[in-house]
Amino acid sequence: MNGPRPAFALLRSQVAFSQPPIEMTRGVRFPGKSYVRFPPSVLPRDASYSGIQLRFRTLQTDTLLFFAASPILAGRDREEYQVIQLRNGRPWFLFDAQDNPTAVTIDNNNLTFNDGKWHRVEVNRFERDGFIEVDGTHTGSGRSRRSTTVIGVNDGVFVGGLPDDFQLGRSKDRGEEVVVTRGLIGCVKDIRVQSDRALGPWTNVTWEEADQWYRAYDSWQGCPVVLDRPAVHFLGRGYLTMLKTFGRLDATMWSVELDFRMSFSSGVLFYAAGRLGEFMLATIQQGKMRYV
Q1: Whether 236 contacts 264, CB under 8 Å
Q2: Of 109, 170, 178, 100, nearest in space to 138 by CA
Q3: Residue 125's closest CA among 149, 89, 161, 146?
């Protein structure tokens, strides 16, 4: 009332790859090197039982779906953990009650579940006995070697991956007991836990309960129905850094081939640089390809 009229600007830009529109379904999408962290209270403390359910979709053979572990003590490893992961396309349930790791998977060794379709995995632990069930049909079980049964406090429940600087603290694990730390490229939904007692009612874990969200897409954005398109989807911002070296820029022959589709009139397609100032750059400028 006592000052000048406010000045503002409203900007709108089209989303790259918006035609045809991508069909989405419910679920949280993890693009890799991402995670969602829930508070420790999601899982029961000092319990001799566990019950965890979730649905996932991925094309990865090895990836981490769910991770919770006890804090690292001074000069020691994490003594307890509960993990759901894929190894060679098969789901595994890992649990450890006080330095007593156990790995459980389904009995059928020929089945894999990294086919880009939704699968429901449920894991249960009753003291020393662990159970896993996939899609309500495929089951497996295992028993820990020692008599310890209680899993105490955890320092956070992670879904879809772990932070880059996370200290795994499981130096004694071997073989099937080793945690797969590769972040999920895919989707997760319908997380549920048993928080009251063994064989008690299931409690839904909502995404709003998360206390840290790192590079995972918001839950309202959904999950692409088709995961196996051989392309990267850029939403008008961001970039992709390739981990592999394709060759030396001082070589006499060096080429890059790619297919692209875009609605922007201008943008960067590819860039690579060497240590001595040499570089390659491919762009679209006002609808025309430019190469330097």
Answers
A1: yes
A2: 109
A3: 149
Query: Domains of the chain: which residue ranges?
Result: 10-22+230-292, 27-221
Name the residue type at position 51. Answer: G
Q: Which pLDDT tens digit goes with each residue over 39-50?
A: 999 999 999 999
Report pLDDT digits (tens) over 71-102.
Answer: 998 778 999 999 999 999 999 999 999 888 99
27 vs 262: CA distance, rounded Å = 26
Output the pTM of the full model. Answer: 0.78
Which architecture does CATH list for 27-221? Sandwich (2.60)
Question: Is residue 220 a contact partner of residue 26, using CB atoms and an 8 Å limit?
Answer: no
Separation of alpha carbons 179 and 81, rounded Å: 10
Please, which contacts does 11-17 make with residues 24 or more away whose CB atoms are closer than 8 Å? 13/236, 14/236, 14/263, 14/264, 15/235, 15/236, 15/263, 16/233, 16/234, 16/235, 16/236, 16/262, 16/263, 16/264, 16/267, 17/233, 17/234, 17/261, 17/262, 17/263
